[in-house]
Amino acid sequence: MTKTIRCDIVSAHEEIFSGDVAMVFATGIAGELGISPRHAPLITQLKPGPVRVQDAAGEEQFYFVTGGIIEVQPHVVTVMADTAMRGEDLDQAAAEAAKAEAERALADRTGDMEIAEAQAKLAEAVAQLQAMERLRKHLKR
Amino acid sequence: MAGGREIVSKIRSVENTKKVTSALEMVSASKIRKSQDLMKESRPYARMMNRVIGHLGKANPEYRHPFTIKHPDVKKVGYIVVSSDRGLCGGLNNNLFKKMLASMGEWQQKGVEVSLVALGKKAIAYFKNVKIEITAVASDLGEKPQIEDLIGTIRSMLEEYREKKVDRVYLVHNDFINTMVQEPVIEQLLPLPPTDDAEVRDIWDYIYEPDAETLLDSVMVRYIEALVYQGVLENLASEHAARMIAMKSATDNATDLIDELNLVYNKARQAAITQEISEIVGGAAAV
To answer: B148: nearest CA in chain A?
Structure first.
């Protein structure tokens, strides 16, 4: 009988933990979860809180997650941690902000002028160099 | 000495440009490595996501998520276009926009409307002048884009799909193949391609907490976000690579040009000296 279960904890920005463990503890949306090998398939959202993994020797490691999803298969546990606080309201607010930003960007025809100007000048200089190069090649022929 | 001073000042100005371009080249070279690391670090998440989505495909939830349901007729398509915030990266953005406009054109010919979400200043500036509806934008993602900065924009597009205002969603970005090659790609995000039904499904299902609907929804949204995030990182690496190449060729051109100008200057100088001597000699002979 297998005594360990594979556990992968990842976030969008990095791999947090990966290895064989004896038990995984996490806080699901419906309550505390303790997952041992051969657990029934389960998928649930995580509440912000610690995820603990216990290896075969009984040593524990803690990871804090701000939420995410945990998927359990009999031989593998996958924790996909969020990197930010999520929630219907927060996501909605972010969407509204992005839309407002679109309107602002469309209305705004000036702004960042100085940088744009400097960039334009540099772009022009580069273009000149290219043009000269072309002309030079042309003349050589 | 004809034009000597002008040539010198031209040489100076080219030298200054060369300094800037070679500095930009070096900066980009170091940034490529960093952005490649970012791509590598975010890969495990995408892999796990694929694994879970794969498992979900094989499970038998009674609930079918709207993102997997194909809308029968296409009246409007949405694009999420990823561009760079800054220019001077060769034809990177323009090639991308051209490919996208071609794809949009095809839809528009069929009488299909188009709306878009623009990520990056260049896309915003470009599509502002094209007559296309822009739903949401995000810019200044920086050298280390965060998935949080994308949530809002992606959601606004997903909402439109959910409300059936949009019937297809595409992701447009540059694929980083290697330092020399970046390729613009258009991927279909929604509806999600169906999982292979040919496979005999085991009769099993997950225990869902709280319920299949909420759960599938949060998984799907995160899946789409992960895909877009990957696109953003690919595009970032492509941007640095393209800028490095563009700046390298500009620096090379400047070097050649300086050599050439030096030659012209020396010739002019010599010609002036020769002329002076022949004038003196001519003058002496006349005396």
So the answer is: A84
Cβ pair B137:A133 closer than 8 A: no
| Chain A residue with minimum CA distance to B249 | A130
- Taking only the tens place, the pLDDT of each residue in B113-161 is 999 999 999 998 888 888 788 889 998 888 888 888 888 899 999 999 9
Chain B CB contacts of A133 under 8 Å are 253, 256-257
Judged by DSSP in three states, A79 sits in strand
Q: What is the ipTM of this complex?
A: 0.75
Alpha carbons A69 and B116: distance in angstroms, whole number: 29
The answer to whether the CB atoms of A42 and B206 lie below 8 A apart is yes
Q: What is the dihedral of CA B134, B138, B143, B145, to 10 degrees?
A: -110
pLDDT by residue (tens digit) across A76-115? 999 999 877 677 777 778 888 888 888 887 776 555 556 6
Provide the token pair at A108.
């705004």
Is the pTM here over 0.95, yes or no? no
Q: Is B142 left (phi over 0), alpha (psi -120 to 50) or beta?
A: left
Contact by Cβ (8 Å): B34, B40: no
